[in-house]
Amino acid sequence: MESFLPASGLRDLERGRDAFLADAGRWRLVYHNDGDGVAAASVLVRAMLRAGKRFQCTPFTEVELSAMRSIVEETRGPILVTDTGSSLLPALASHPYPVIVLDHHKPPEGAGFSSDRHLFLNPHRWGIDGMTDLCGSMLSYLFARVVDDRNADLILWGLSGAIADRQHVNGFRGVNRALAQDAERRELLTRDRGLLLMGDTVVDALSTSVDPYLQGLSGNREKSLEFLRQLQIDPDSTFPKLEPDQKVRLSSAILTHLIGQGTRPEFCDAFTGEVYRAPGEPLDAHALSVLQNATARESEPSVGVALSLGDPVALPRAWELERKWRSSVLENLRKLSTNLTKKKALQWFHISEAALGGAVASFGITYFLDSTRPVFALGRRGNVIKVSGRGTSWLVEQGMDLDIACREAARAVQGEGGGHRVASGATIPPGSEERFLDKADELLSQQLVRILK
Length: 453
Hints:
By secondary structure, the protein is an alpha/beta fold. It has 18 helices and 13 strands.
C-alpha cells in the first residue's frame, strides 16, 4: 500500500484498521445517500462480512449536524461513517464508543477529533485532492485492503463510486488510477474502450439519454429515429451488434451534436470511455454506478448495496428504479432552459423533487447551460430547502470554490452547507432562498472576478 499513499495516509488507515478489528461490537455503518456513498457502503459491507463483523447499515440522507446527533444518540456501539462526516465531526465527537470517519470531502479549517477512540481519515489531510483523485468509495476500498488484502477484489465497487462522482471524466487520475492499474495487473479487472450510452436498443439509448443530454434528441423518440436513419443505423439494433464503422459514424454525429449545443470541449466525448469489468460480475463499473446512484436518489439505497451481495431481487429492482429516475431527470432537463434565473455569477432554478436537484444541475452545466456560471438547484424537502450547486473543472481553474460559497452563504441564513469546490450543497430555512442566493452570488463574484470583468 506504500505505493498508493504518503506515509501519513497509510498510518491513518492502519490506525483505523486496528480500531476496527479490535472492537467486537455491532458496528453501525453510516453512508452518504448517493452513488459514491452506496458504492462505499458496498465495499465495506463485503469487507465486514469477511472480517466476521456484526453490523447494520444506515443511509445518511441529510447533511445537518442534528441528523448525525440523532444517529449518535440512538447507537450503542461503534460507528463507521463513509463518504460523509467531514463537517459533522462535532456531532460524532460525543460518542462514547469508537468512531471511524472515511470521507473525501474537504474538511472545514481545524476539523478533527481530540479523542484517540475517534479517527478521522481524509485524503486532503495527506495532500491528496478528494475532489479529483480519491472518492469516498475508493477511500473505503483502500481501508478495506488495509484490513485484509483479499478485499482487493472489491475494486469494481470502488471505481463505480468514482464514476458516480464523475472522477472518471477525461480518465481516472491520482490514487484512483494507480489502484485501477494495480487491479489490472492482478487480473482483478479488465479495461476496454467503448460507448457509455445505456439502453436496450440504440434508439432507446439516444431518446432517453441524460448523460450525455442531447438537446432535441433526449426525450424525443421521433427525432432520435430520424437522427439514426440519416446515419444509416438500424434504430432497433444494440450497441454490441453495431459494425465498427457504424460506431464511428454514431460517435462522430453525437460529438457534432454536442458541439452544436455549446457543450464544453472536455465533456464532448464523455459518452465514450474506459469500460471496467471484474471477473464473474454481470455489470461493468459504469452501469453499476448508474444503478447505485438511481437507487439512492429514488430512496432505496439498500437495493444498491444489495447488488454487491448478489441478491437476485436487487438487480431487476435497481433497473426499475433507474428507469424511473432517468425519466424524472429527463423531464426536468427538458424544462430547464425555461426555468432558469441568472444572477451576476450564478444561475439557479427551482425543482419540485429536491432529490433530483444535483443530477439535473450537473447534467445541465455539463451539457448545455451557460458554462461561465455555476448552477444551483433549490427544492423543498420536508421543512427545509435543499440546495445543490454544480460547476465545472474549468470554473474551478478560474477560482470557483462552491464548498466555500455554499458553506458561507448557508451560514449567513442559519443553515448548513459544504462539499467540494466543483460540487457542493446546503440546507437552509424556507424563506431564506433569496438571501442565500444573494450571498452566494456575492462570494462567487469575488472568486470569479477574472472572468466576470
